[in-house]
Specification:
The protein is of the alpha/beta class. It has twelve helices and 21 strands. The protein has helices at residues 46-56, 90-93, 105-110, 122-132, 156-170, 219-227, 249-252, 275-285, 305-313, 381-387, 399-409, 437-452, and strands at residues 7-12, 32-37, 41-42, 60-69, 79-81, 101-104, 136-147, 174-178, 185-189, 197-203, 207-209, 216-218, 237-243, 259-264, 290-294, 298-300, 318-326, 332-334, 367-368, 376-380, 413-424. It is globular.
């Protein structure tokens, strides 16, 4: 591909639509077509960048890149939209790719060209169709466009129509519902016959005060009480409790609407506690294919939490599904974990009030992270067997993180959904994760390459804070020196 013939630009209207006169009559198979906001400043070496990325990734037929909104008196500080690697879960929730979009002619011909009836969702519709056809889509980790105003995006109605066409064509057993934030959506599976699920809960019967009686009760009791609210057939729900305490009468003598099985997991005197060993013992005893690992210091906040998890967990391409965990004061505890931030990894946005929007709404939409916490983790037994369960070389720290990354190496995707929401009574004073040095060293040695470049994150995003923000340099190509402003 020559640089001179690399790109043919198709400028979009501010509404996101394209006029018939701007659509080529035919698409040259070897040519690239750029769909961009006609008012944006494009990277001065865009053709060179494209040639370099296309040479490295010849299987990719659609590239997208990052965007910047310049600082003005109207829109405040400049905004950088740093985009993750192509995310099949997030693209359903929001049009995070936007423009510019660079598409090879052979992909356009395979897809039958553009569907002009998609309106402002023209390229969004194209991406959904390309995903269904298995066409390679990937990012260029460079700012390709600079806007003087908030960048145009497809409107919600047009996207909803495009999603409905995708659903009918590709996922007829699912519904598309409104998301937590205006203009976002969620995928929800319809189960004619919900599968049986086992919740695997380790406990040592730690206590917390009951707010209704002011008397302490074990945390496992509070969790079981809240699980009563779950919208799932109770005859298809089992709780497998691994209890370090010999006497389980505090909760075992109660009548529960679901099945409760109890395994005593006490240790011999002098035996060191190993969480990974305990969990491996438990999940292998579970009778169901579908499992959810759960800490005992949780309380269900939304009754459809299990449906939200199982929407993704039943998909054989997905290795695990994490949940949205909030502290009792409604601050964020877990919404996903970027690798290589504040050391090996951290909880994104930890301690931030849950009512505040997060960077690009990453905490408010379902999306793929490379790592989610094991405090609530839905998984299938077949995936666990392929991964050989938890690595017992991580007795306390990193066992869940390491499991996620090994699942990814096996080709599975890791999904976070905000629609499975819990209160988590983990210490709310802990804003940074503290690890045992020997486990941190082993983890860093095993995963150092991945920690440097997490595809669910971005090289331009901060690594020194859990509150995700883009980094900026005065040498960036779009930055105009102060004297020239």
């Amino acid at each position: 591909m020559s640089r001179q013939d690399a790109l043919l630009t198709v400028c979009l209207e501010p509404s996101g639509c394209v006029r018939d006169s701007k659509v080529p009559a035919d698409f040259n198979q070897s040519r690239w077509y750029l769909f961009a906001d006609g008012e944006a400043r494009l990277h001065p070496h865009l053709s060179d960048l494209l040639c370099a990325y296309a040479a490295k990734r010849p299987e990719i037929d659609i590239f997208y890149g990052d965007e910047v909104v310049e600082e003005t008196s109207l829109n405040g500080p400049g905004l950088q939209l740093c985009k993750p690697s192509f995310d099949r879960t997030q693209i359903i929730a929001q049009d995070y790719i936007g423009w510019p979009l660079i598409v090879r002619g052979r992909a356009l011909r395979k897809l039958g060209g553009l569907d002009l009836s998609a309106g402002s969702a023209l390229t969004y519709d194209l991406i959904l169709r390309a995903q269904s056809e298995g066409i390679g889509i990937e990012r260029i980790t460079e700012v390709l466009a600079v806007h003087s105003r908030p960048p145009p995006r497809s409107n919600a109605d047009d996207r909803a129509a495009a999603l409905d066409r995708w659903r009918r064509r590709t996922a007829p057993g699912y519904d598309i519902l409104p998301g937590l934030v205006d203009g976002t959506f969620q995928l929800r599976r319809r189960f004619a016959d919900p599968p049986s699920v086992t919740l695997v809960v380790p406990t040592r019967q730690s206590f917390r005060e009951d707010p209704n009686t002011s008397r302490p009760k074990p945390m496992i009791y509070h969790l079981l009480e809240s699980i009563r609210l779950t919208e799932w057939p109770m005859d298809k729900l089992s709780i497998l409790i691994g209890d370090d305490v010999e006497d389980g009468s505090l909760y075992e003598d109660r009548r529960w609407p679901f099945r409760v099985d109890r395994v005593v997991t006490g240790r011999h005197r002098g035996e060191t506690f190993n969480y990974a060993t305990k969990m491996n013992q438990l999940w292998r005893k579970a009778g169901d294919e579908h499992l959810v690992f759960m800490n005992d210091d949780l309380v269900v906040r939304k009754p459809d939490w299990l449906l939200a998890l199982m929407t993704f967990a039943v998909n054989e391409e997905i290795g695990g599904v994490g949940a949205r965990l909030l502290y009792p004061d409604d601050r964020i505890q877990h919404v996903g974990m970027p690798a290589g931030v504040l050391g090996p990894c951290t909880h994104a946005f930890i301690g931030r009030p849950a009512t505040l929007r997060t960077y690009q709404n990453w905490a408010e939409v379902h999306r793929e992270w490379s790592i989610v916490t094991g405090a609530v983790f839905a998984i299938r037994k077949d995936a666990l067997k392929r991964a050989n369960g938890f690595d017992e070389n991580f007795p306390l720290d990193f066992n869940d993180v390491d499991l996620c990354l090994r699942l990814r190496l096996l080709g599975y995707r890791i999904v976070y959904t905000p629609f499975a929401e819990f209160t988590h009574y983990e210490s709310a004073s802990r804003s940074r994760m503290v690890y045992r040095s020997e486990e941190a060293a082993l983890f860093a040695e095993r995963w150092q390459g991945f920690l440097a470049d997490d595809p669910a994150y971005h090289p331009r995003l901060t690594r020194s804070s859990s509150d995700i923000t883009p980094a900026r340099s005065e040498t960036d190509w779009w930055v105009i020196p102060a004297a020239g402003r």
